[in-house]
Design a protein that fits this description.
Blueprint (H helix, E strand, L loop, with lengths): L13 E3 L6 E4 L3 E9 L2 E8 L2 E6 L3 E15 L5 E3 L4 E4 L4 E17 L1
Antiparallel strand pairs: 1-3, 2-5, 3-4, 4-9, 5-9, 6-7, 6-8, 6-9
Amino acid sequence: MAKTQQVLPLGDPEISRPDPARLIFGNPEHRTWLTDQAKGLWCGVWQSTPGKWRVIYEEWEYFRLTEGFSILTPDDGAPIHLRPGDAHVIRPGFTGTWEVVETTIKDFVIRI
């Protein structure tokens, strides 16, 4: 049986906000803790307060929500409601909106 370990944020996070040109509503603040970084691969924990903004992905991302409620809506599809325990893969070329309804925390792995 494989052993798993909870990865907890350590140290000070990088704090950011969505590009104002992509912001739809709210004043979301993002906090990112990188737990590992290698050439072309980033892993960590991301937290955001409520708001909605446009997203454009040029990379692969796998994530799993650990807290909160968010809605990811592709430009060409139905909204995806994300709650704790839900996992999702976003492929390069994805465009749509990300709405944080309740402050959300996710573990993520990004491959560029």
